[in-house]
Design goal:
single chain; mainly beta; Immunoglobulin-like; 5-stranded antiparallel β-sheet; rod-shaped; Ig-like_fold; Bacterial Ig-like domain-containing protein
Length: about 300
């Protein structure tokens, strides 16, 4: 008897093999499944071969066979790398928290993200895997990472790396931001604290600076009015003309850096436009002897 037909079955696909007249082997070119085998049981696609002879006798061997089973386990690897998306902080952000939470997502829709390969690098430091909180979601992981050591004020870059279960490395993603924990400096050159004046026109002038996030924004509020933004020059100087109300005026100046840290200076200025009123004058004695002294007593209100 002779073999009449030879078939191979893989992933629900049945293929008929053709006998090679030179080698005597039965052969076929088969298109592999278009999905990775990683998520299959045992991480492989089982292959079954079926031989039928002229008399109708059938021999079937599959991946469970003790002799040939290991040769009937097809490993399929994908070639598409995972995708990394950093959601926080955003590029160019200014943060007042020096241990910010880094949030990102890694997805892969085939073999899946290998969680052990997810790494975070801070600046030029050593990549770390410990301390990354990984929450499994459809297609991958949502992750957060919080530095264990406070970052110094200034610019920092966070880099994220990951691979899928088939060894494809994602394109590294990074984000650069700034830490700013120190409020801006703020000095007021005019008016002086406690100034008393008879002029309603008053110019508030000063200078602000922040080592990390200049230029700052400045607002000036007079009494219970609204805080109004003023223009800050490149060197940090600013000025604004105000009209004082009669009596005691409170001027509040607030400088805010890009991380939201604030410095506040207040000035109290008194506007008095009422001239003193002389209500009585007494000269004693009057008349006075020539060359002698006399006392003048004036009663005045203001």
């Amino acid at each position: 008897m002779a073999v009449k037909t030879m078939q191979a079955i893989i992933n629900g696909q049945t293929v008929t093999l053709t006998k090679n007249s030179e080698s005597g082997k039965w052969e076929a070119t088969i298109t592999a499944p278009n999905r990775s085998s990683y998520n299959q049981s045992g991480h492989y696609y089982p292959v079954t071969v079926k031989a039928t002879d002229d008399a109708g006798n059938v021999t079937t061997v599959d991946a469970s066979d003790t002799t040939l089973g290991s040769k009937l386990r097809l490993t399929v690897k994908e070639k598409v790398a995972p995708i990394i998306t950093i959601t926080a902080p955003t590029a160019g952000a200014y943060l007042s928290n020096n241990t910010p939470t880094i949030s990102f997502k890694v997805t892969d829709d085939d073999s899946g993200v290998n969680p052990d390969t997810i790494k975070v690098t801070i600046d030029s430091g050593t990549p770390v895997t410990a301390g990354i909180i990984k929450t499994q979601v459809t297609g991958g992981y949502e992750c957060t990472f919080k530095p264990t050591t406070a970052l110094p004020d200034g610019s920092h870059t966070i880099k994220v790396d990951a691979m899928d279960h088939d060894g494809n490395a994602a394109a590294q993603k990074s984000v650069t931001f700034k830490i700013d924990t120190i409020p801006p400096t703020l000095s007021i050159t005019s008016p002086a604290e406690g100034l008393k004046t008879n002029q309603a026109a008053c110019t508030v002038a000063g200078k602000t600076n922040d080592a990390t996030s200049s230029p700052c924004t400045v607002t000036i509020k007079l009494n219970s009015g609204s805080a109004e933004a003023v223009t800050v020059n490149e060197d940090g100087t600013f000025s604004k003309a105000l009209t004082l109300a009669a009596g005691t005026n409170t001027i509040t100046v607030v400088a805010t850096d890009k991380a939201g840290k604030q410095a506040t200076v207040t000035r109290t200025v008194i506007l008095d436009t009422t001239a003193p009123r002389i209500t009585d004058v007494v000269l004693t004695p009057n008349p006075v002897d020539a060359g002698k002294t006399f006392i003048i007593s004036v009663t005045v209100t203001d």
